[in-house]
Design a protein that fits this description.
Number of helices: 3
Shape: elongated
Strand content: 15-25%
Largest sheet: 5 strands, antiparallel
Number of strands: 5
């Protein structure tokens, strides 16, 4: 039996227990590092996107504020012109007298008139520029009323003054 035990000790099968391998079932430190780098890259990309979106929104807000300020400045000027026109109309005894004393412009406002389609009165048009692409347009009907020139506001709107370039597009007509 001594021989048998010695032989087994030499072969190394029984003498020492096997060492267990560590980390076989878990994530290694290499995979964890790669995962952390990817998370940092994603967070950086989201931070950059958030910043650029905030800057674009700030620019849009500034443009919106400027547009609103320009509109209300033009609206105030238009209201002053309307007040001047109504005051002048009350002082005149007829629509013809009112139109003869009418200036061609008042401040920024440009005034113009033409005979109405019916021939009974006149159409007075007043435009006030808002910015380089928009204007405020007012249209008033001028008629004789009870020995005075009577004004009636018929149109008050914002119009585009932008010049559109005509692009020729070759479209196949089927022939």
């Amino acid at each position: 039996m001594k021989q048998l035990v010695g032989m087994t000790q030499m072969s190394g099968d029984i003498s020492t227990p096997r060492e267990q391998k560590k980390g076989l079932g878990g994530i290694g430190t290499g995979m964890l590092s790669v995962l952390m780098v990817l998370i940092i890259l994603l967070l950086t990309a989201f931070a950059v996107l958030s910043y650029t979106t905030a800057v674009a929104e700030a620019r849009l807000t500034e443009k919106t504020v400027q547009s609103a300020e320009d509109y209300y400045t033009a609206d105030a000027a238009a209201q002053k012109v309307l007040f001047m026109l109504y005051t002048q109309a009350e002082a005149c005894s007829s629509a013809d007298e009112f139109l003869q004393t009418l200036p061609q412009s008042s401040g920024q406002a440009v005034l113009g008139w033409q005979q109405d389609e019916t021939g009974a009165g006149y159409q007075l048009t007043c435009t006030v520029p808002i910015d380089e692409a928009r204007q405020l347009r007012m249209q008033l009907s001028v008629e004789d009323a009870d020995g005075k020139a009577g004004l009636t506001l018929t149109l008050y709107r914002v119009e585009s003054t932008a010049v559109w370039e005509d692009e020729n597009i070759n479209v196949w007509d089927g022939t």
